[in-house]
Design goal:
It is a single chain. The chain is mainly α. It is built from 7 helices and 3 strands, in the order ααααααβββα. The chain has a 3-stranded antiparallel beta sheet. The two termini are about 10 Å apart. The relative contact order is 0.12.
């Protein structure tokens, strides 16, 4: 009887460990050399990482492809927007919010031109300072209003299953112990 209880506990503990270690994995699309060149240029111009990540996520979609000519056009617009910002003394998002309307308009125009190369549209709300990038279907693919998002793995379901299995193993041990005492 003790061997059976030990086997049941071993199986229960193994199951709990297996569930606790399982992590979902999602395959992402690939970034080709042209898309990587655009991402590298954004990085070189000190664009905040959260915006580069949004661009990367967009490029990783299976239906998104950037040709060498498109990449060059996008990079040229990035360079021109950066030159306008540099000329105006803009080094951060805070500086951009303090810039005059004409400078912001010039930068937004370059960003829009870069986005249009790959059939995206950019809208900018001067009151809130929020920029939104949408695809040709109207779906938001990037935004400057990122906020705080939950990241990382969600382990609540694993915790619930592990707790349930732990209770089941404890209950099984109690039942087995009572059954062994009843036989004795």
């Amino acid at each position: 009887m003790k061997k059976t209880v030990k086997k049941i506990i071993a199986v229960g503990v193994s199951s709990v460990m297996l569930l606790a270690m399982s992590v979902s994995a999602f395959a992402a699309g690939t970034i080709d050399a042209n898309e990587q060149a655009v991402l590298d240029q954004l990085n070189a111009k000190k664009v905040p990482a959260e915006y580069i990540t949004q661009a990367k996520n967009y490029f990783e979609k299976d239906d998104v492809s950037v040709s060498a000519d498109e990449a060059k056009a996008i990079i040229d617009n990035i360079d021109e927007a950066a030159a306008i910002a540099k000329e105006a003394g803009i080094k951060s998002a805070a500086d951009l919010s303090k810039a005059d309307a004409a400078t912001i308009e010039k930068i937004v125009a370059k960003v829009q031109a870069a986005a249009e190369v790959v059939d995206l549209s950019v809208s900018y709300d001067a009151k809130t300072g929020k920029a939104t990038v949408k695809d040709n279907a109207g779906k938001v693919v990037a935004t400057s209003d990122i906020g705080t998002k939950k990241t990382g793995a969600d382990s609540m379901s694993a915790v619930a299953v592990v707790s349930f299995l732990g209770l089941a193993v404890a209950a099984l041990a109690i039942v087995t112990r009572k059954h062994a005492k009843a036989k004795a």
